[in-house]
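DATA SHEET
Item: assembly model
Revision: 1
Owner: S.N.
Input lines:
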Amino acid sequence: MAVYTDVSDGDLTRFMAEYDLGAVLSCKGIAEGVENSNFLLTTERGSFILTLYEKRVSPADLPFFIRLMEHLATRGFSCPTPLHGRDGQSLRSLCGRPAAVISFLEGLWPRQILPFHCAGVGDALARLHLAGADFPMTRPNNLSVGGWRQLVETTRERADEVAPALADDIVGELEYLESAWPSALPQGICHADMFPDNVFFRDEHVTGVIDFYFACTDALAFDLAICLNAWCFESNNLWNAEKAKCLLDAYQAVRPLGAAERAAIPVFARGSAFRFLLTRLYDWLNRPPGALVRPKDPLEYLAKLRFHRSAGGVEAYGL
Amino acid sequence: MAVYTDVSDGDLTRFMAEYDLGAVLSCKGIAEGVENSNFLLTTERGSFILTLYEKRVSPADLPFFIRLMEHLATRGFSCPTPLHGRDGQSLRSLCGRPAAVISFLEGLWPRQILPFHCAGVGDALARLHLAGADFPMTRPNNLSVGGWRQLVETTRERADEVAPALADDIVGELEYLESAWPSALPQGICHADMFPDNVFFRDEHVTGVIDFYFACTDALAFDLAICLNAWCFESNNLWNAEKAKCLLDAYQAVRPLGAAERAAIPVFARGSAFRFLLTRLYDWLNRPPGALVRPKDPLEYLAKLRFHRSAGGVEAYGL
């Protein structure tokens, strides 16, 4: 639940005068997403999303995100694309923040995940990986193995406030992952945050994928492991092997995994659970008093991490 | 900022099957309003608002609100109107709450109030009062003078936590208002909550008024006094006499006040400031820990109340 910045009608009118989208008919803050301020904007030309990039998104990264969305759309992958103003620019400033008008994507994100959703997201992720193959820009993933030591150092001192012996647990896990992390696997454009609220469906079909603000260059199988964590556990954190099979089969129907990638899935599944455990732990320990956003529960990802630790081998993932 | 209830895609699809609005194309929670859960719904037939009535709205009052919106729209007053399902019903149930699909109203609510906005709201309020004149249902205003003693009793014990000597202040004010409250003034349908976020504009014109969930039967001049408080103070709580004149002149151009109504404006201005002071004080003292909604500041209305106390006479209001 978000909307951090309130945009005045005067500021909005001046901002929209830079676009050929006609008069603004309405503008309503959307209570979704936690990183940016998003508004559903209706103009004489249709519906759009107005995004104000808040402090968690680095302005230096915005050209990468914006051009990636344009590139993917050009390759036939359905995602929001930024609109260009009369000056050709798609990134400008509103209320002191970088801001862009983005195309509106139809569809609903699924609250209750069924196996067909997992098949849809597996297919969409593989198509995204192929569509990104010739994207010329790169962006390192600072939330992969190379970034975790810093997060562990920042959170370990107070980690036991969240769960008993969590500090020792994350230190040990970091050591394991740093030693076991596979290198030299196929890299490319990763979405890196393809959770259910970022994938829109109409009936059983994916209408598109949103929120590319964690996108980066990393091992493609690591992106797949993020989806396994995000889509294939039940709400009680129990693993659903059927959903995992749907997701992996649909992915491989478009982009078959190599042998080394298949072998890496167990450690990538641990690693991606660890990544969300660490960032949620950080947000939990650093939530500002009186914040309007309730931080997500780090313990959900501790439970998922423990499943992957005990799963043992690629067979657990149906590979 | 709201959205209390998260509606699953399956529940939404089943709910919308009762309407002839085509397939749902998108549904996004709106981060506005604090009483109900509101979603901007796009279907094959256009844009609509889906409202789930949360606990602060009494289900017994919903037929009054729904029929009032229909009545006002029939009389040419621009406001949202509920859509009827195939069974003729406009009120049904979703996620265990009363729910309705409401027409979408274009326009932006003003963040920075200019004199023309005050003229627009004065004109709209007078037209609402006339359009409501032949509405057959009534609903008592439990947030007028008859309801304040209960609120004072509930809040006085802890009122001094919010401002020094506030408890004595509200007890004294209550006694004054109970003794001075005018009776036998023209009554009718009041909006009773016509704040800037409930009045939409396009350019300098009002496109419509939303949020009738405090509407009631009360003295029309009291409704006007609510607007004076909501629209005619600057953000530092200083009175702006020009804005008040714009609002009152525009109101009287449509519905001239009688002599007794004009004479009642000063006490109604005190009373309406007191009403919002009391309800904000109650919400402030009773905010649940970890709530996602930041309660509005009661001290804003204490400052407004003090202005009205010292203003002295109808001349202060340009009457």
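QC remark: Chain B is about 40% helix and 15% strand.
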